[in-house]
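--- STAGE predict ---
source: upstream dedup step, 1 unique chain passed
mode: sequence only
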Amino acid sequence: MAKNTKNVSPSAPAATPITSLENIIKAALFTPGPHGWGLPILLWGPVGIAKTSLVEAIARKWGLAFNSLVGSIIEPMDVAGMQLPDEANHRMVQYPAHWVSRANQNQGHVQLLDELTTCPRAVQGAMLKLVFERKAGEVNLHRRVRFLAAANPMDQAANATDIETPLANRFGHIEAGAPEVSVWSDWLLGGADYDADPADPSKALDEERRVVALWDNAFSRSAAVVTSFLRTRGSLFNDQPSAGDPKASLAFPTPRTWELATRALAAADVHGLSPDERATLVAAFVGPGPASEYLAYARQTDLPDPEALLDGNVSWKHQANRADRTFAVLSSITSLLVRLKGGRSLDECSKDEALIKRLRQGWKITMEVARAEAADIAYPALQRMIRADLDYRVDKAGLMQYAADMHPIASKIGGSVGR
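--- STAGE serialize ---
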């Protein structure tokens, strides 16, 4: 395929130092994604700076198996598999690509899509379901298979072509910096071992368990601030570049990338990333401009920890001049309550004393806002709890209190607050 001159080299953010890059990649690998573990990150960087080796080293360090597919030498069937006739049963059978079965059998796996700017468009098309939906053709990838990618700039890639917009919007984009001389020297003098044995797979499982224990609280907080921000800056919710714009191969805000950015923000809390690393990870998905605006808003909002609020360990009061903050606080506690309930039955939830205690506190906080002449702000939170059966259907002892609370609120809103 001839080199595409329309987009010689996308303009990416400044290169991320190697130490920060390691922290960010590790956080991305151990973040719950939409359909399994991992946030899909695409590392941009010049030839020879060891992008592939860095990903492999991080995978091995954390007990994850590693494999790569090189864009310039693969075909669509290497991604999606191929159909062959089953003559005995008179039908076509889908056979997965060779790496898929191995990835699914491993106890945690990192699949690198390498040299992405050398992938023919047909191969990029085959990757669309792979990266976000975790499907290779008709085969589902295991939830513990993660996807990362790497690419050289267009002017350094052999037989290069643009990364198509639909595929670009499935990744977070980070500019990788070359390793510092001191870091590279330590590696070389330490044996330059490319094939070190991976850590025990239990290390990855232990880290996944640690993240899961913290995830509901972190995600609820992030989701609340993101949704509150986008209510005030709706133009940044879906700001897609026009056809032919070099930014179409990089990060830009869409509903999909805001979801991934929300997960990235929660991951930054769970993994203790620095402010600069947090900013890099968020910008990777929605772009530097929207990320900068969001982070400034988040600092101003200063949201209390929703778990601590529901447990009564911190206090908070509604301020009439900060309706946006109130909306975010109520969103965070209702989001956490819904996640804590999960898919359990009403009978199971009614026996969970910790959930009932937090539900009563969440209801109390929300009603205090409603009584402070802010029923319109409290209404969405109350509605989310009711739709999730987080009222008298779980807390049967509070039936009369819930009914007494809801009647005046429904009157103020002008209708029913039921389902």
